[in-house]
Amino acid sequence: MRIAAAVRAAWCLSAITDSRARSAPSKRAAFRSQEWNITPAVALVIAVVVTMLLCAYTQTARADDNRPLVVGSKNFTESVLLAEIFRDEAQRHALTVAHRRALGGTAILWQALLQAQIDVYPEYSGTLTQELLHDLPPHTDLAGLRARLAQQGIGISAPLGFEDGYALAVPQSLAARLKLHTLDDLRAQTQLRYGLSNEFLDRADGWPGLRKAYALAPMQLQGLDHDLAYRAVRDGAIDVIDVYSTDAEILDQHLQVLDDNRGYFPRYDAVLLYRLDSAARVPALATTLAALANRISVADMRRLNAEVKLDHRDEAAVAAAYLGIAAPPAQSNVVALLARVGQRTLEHLALVGVSLGLALLIGLPLGIFAAGRPAIGHTAVAATSILQTIPALAMLVFLIPLLGIGAKPAIAALFFYSLLPIVRNTVAGLEAVDPALRDSARALGLPAQVRLLRIELPLARQAILAGISTAAVINVGTATLGALIGAGGYGQPILTGVRLGNPALILEGAIPSALMALAVQALFALLAYTLQARESQRV
Amino acid sequence: MNARHATAAATPRAIGFAFEGVTRRYGAQRAVDAVTLAFAPGSVSALVGSSGSGKSTLLRLLLGLEIADEGRVLFDQQPVTPDTVADIRRACGYVIQSGGLFPHLSVRANLALLPRHLRWPADRIDARAVELAALVNLDSALLQRYPHQLSGGQRQRVALMRALMTDPPVLLLDEPLGALDPIIRHQLQDELRTIFEAIGKTVIVVTHDLAEAAFLAPRLVLMRAGAVVQDGSLADLRERPADEFVARFVAAQRSLPPA
Tell me: the pLDDT tens digits for A256-279? Predict the structure, then answer.
């Protein structure tokens, strides 16, 4: 009974807008007119929530369409470029392809491919043997990979023509001074400061194996984002970084790549992975893949990377120029900017709104149920606290096998993060209700659900609203991470801006995100104020 | 339940209740200690004693806000149990010292809470509110206000109105005038006595003020440390105090020194 009441309480959250005058028609008018006076703040909140739900709906509807082929890319320039090149080449074969760009790391792309969220993505042969297919020996050839992948319904293209392997690099000046030529030379120089990308630190074919193979024992080692590592080594903050052999910065920043004299690193031939069922459905996919075989040299790739990363040109334009086709039409800057920001605002609102709505549906009843039951209350708050401590990226990777990529796993993660403030404040707010008032309500002979809806929830309203407001503001910020799994929103330009070292692009996401957080906070403050005013200022 | 509502406007049947060897413990402390008391239908009684003597707990036991550890509480010959407690609460009007008015609801909404739940039509609720406002001397214009916009005396009048909205046969008042200034208190004592005489309900008033108790109720139940020390009229307490404590309690009532 209490639960049923709680669920009702959740949706007419405005026990809030105050169920003061519920039933009874006619003669009540005198009392009712003021009691049902929906204030602008309440109307605004309702409008925002409805908008969010609509955004979410259209988003879903789009995903369910009989969609065109989708190529995914990892969150680094080369991957985005290769996906663009694939898309442009496909266009030549009369095949329309959508590009879900910069989706995060290998795990996310691989899961997305297995879940048929994407049809194609650029990968490297070494990553397959080292990271994804643990049952294969490290130096399996292409035929072996093809046979193994086919078991999972995945195809592998011919090599694209270049290798992008892992390597360690140091500044040339340092290499000259310490006479560093090979990885073996690093062993004696334990004072060197290593700044390695997080993925390199974690993956089996990365740092753990390398350290063993060369018996390296640096005294200083830290994990960094790959793009930040270049800046750190340029600024002299670190000495040794991991690089990809096609990175544009190797030449630009005068880095020396150390020779893998023991042949530790496996080959990283660039290939395209694709779903076999997609190839069966769309014959032009195979011809596109064949056309790209052996097409791109290491020199080409390094130059393309440099054009994007160092000359700050758009990936789509660079890819189109490389294939010699017309670049995508450029819109007027302001119009394009507004359109982008508007689209991302809708996506962001949908992420925040839907996750918050779900958290209310679950969190409010949970808080209501837990209030006054210390054992359950502590358990519920502890459980939601634990959810809060899971790093966002880890949470997203966990969720992909369940929910795929895109908005759904992002919404689920935000939902989990929203629970704690809502549950905790609901419990605290209800437990803070004056016991004399609670007893007065009981002594009146009102049943539990009426007491809850008419007395206890309205009295706890301020605390509950504060919790919801906190959750909403946190969500606006955290939702930017949704871009890692293709959920869109303001995180998209931030992620791209960090990748390309483009502050303007970072601000294009960060400023609207901050504004939205402020707006959400202001909205809840206005709502609390208005509700307060309705009670105290009326005579 | 519905039968009672139907007759709510008519003169209700008076109801009696009794405590049979009731004990209520908080940890090791006995808030109510083996109390046996009966209250006849239509009687007006006062529970008197210092704070912590257990008199408020007796009311709470009757309303099922507390459950007896030992003994039985009988309401209209029915034991107070979780099954009967809803009906019992609706048969009782209950007023506490702070009024217990809900701050987020207007006076009228406070009054309308239970009647609306019982599906009274709005015009009936309004008519009853106006009728009770006259009974407790409250300006009907104040019905639109919120509790914090009222004086302490007005709040207690509203609390009494709320307790009487559905015309319950029993009225339980827990230090109803405890927080009021002397003039208002005096005035409300007069009004309460008139009201008790007019409404013909079974009434218990809890107060630590013997003079107030004696003014409002012919029967005084003096309590100390959870137990009944003496049960009788003011004359009984004065002339035949059961023990030293009763004599001291009576003597402790101060009157103005002679001019």
Answer: 889 888 888 888 899 999 999 999
List phi, psi (to 5°) of B38: -125, 145
Q: How high is the pLDDT of residue A518?
A: 94
Work out how many domains chain B is built from and give that number.
1
Residue pair B159/B79 in contact by the 8 Å Cβ criterion: no
Q: Do B89 and A443 touch (CB under 8 A)?
A: yes
Angle of CA points A196, A202, A205, to nearest 5°:
90
What structural domains does chain A harbor? 66-161+268-323 (3.40.190.10), 166-257 (3.40.190.120), 344-364+392-534 (1.10.3720.10)
Burial of A61 (0-12, 13-18, 19+ CB in 10 A): exposed
What are the tens digits of pLDDT across the range B92-101?
Answer: 999 998 889 9
- Indicate the average pLDDT of chain A: 82
Indicate yes or no: CB of A439 within 8 angstroms of CB of B96: yes
Q: Do A23 and B119 touch (CB under 8 A)?
A: yes
Q: Which of B86, B102, B148 is nearest residue A455 as measured by Cβ atoms?
A: B102
Q: What are the chain A neighbours of B56 within 8 Å (beta carbons)? A: none
Tokens of A237: 């903050």
Task: Judge: B96–A22 Cβ closer than 8 Å, yes or no.
Answer: no
Which 43-82 residues of chain B touch chain A by CB within 8 A?
Answer: 60, 63, 65
State the Cα–Cα distance between residues A443 and A106, nearest whole angstrom: 62
Q: For residue range A503-533, what is the model confidence (pLDDT) as tens digits?
A: 888 999 999 999 999 999 999 999 888 877 7
Q: Do residues A122 and A82 touch, judged by C-beta distance below 8 A?
A: yes
Looking at the complex, does the CB of residue B92 fall below 8 Å from at least one CB of chain A? yes
CB–CB contact A437 B102 (8 Å): yes
Is this structure's pTM higher than 0.80?
no
